[in-house]
Amino acid sequence: MGRIVHHKLVRDRIPEIIRAAGQDCATRVLTDTEYVPALLAKALEEVRELAEAAPAERIVELGDVREVLDALMAAWGIDEGEVARIQAERREERGGFGTRIFLEWTEDGRETPGHSPGE
To answer: How far apart are CA 37 and CA 77, in angstroms?
Structure first.
């Protein structure tokens, strides 16, 4: 099959799993400067996978997203309890998503040249 270049952050045990499957791989430990951008790229990757997941796989993908978010919180020194507190405050101030409100448009009421409000 040949060499496949990945250039991405992987879970800690992935090299071990690859080698146990009889394949070879090359890895390196990211620097502090490289780590957070790699985590953010991994977060985007995992959210894309969640968006494309079959219903039976959504729980697995949600777990993967949460794993990356936990790693980001640790890298930034953010406590999970603090995130939960902020989340609760935001929910109180702005609401959640349970009522499924979809914003179609807004209007500021100011007239623009050649247009009246409501047009």
So the answer is: 15
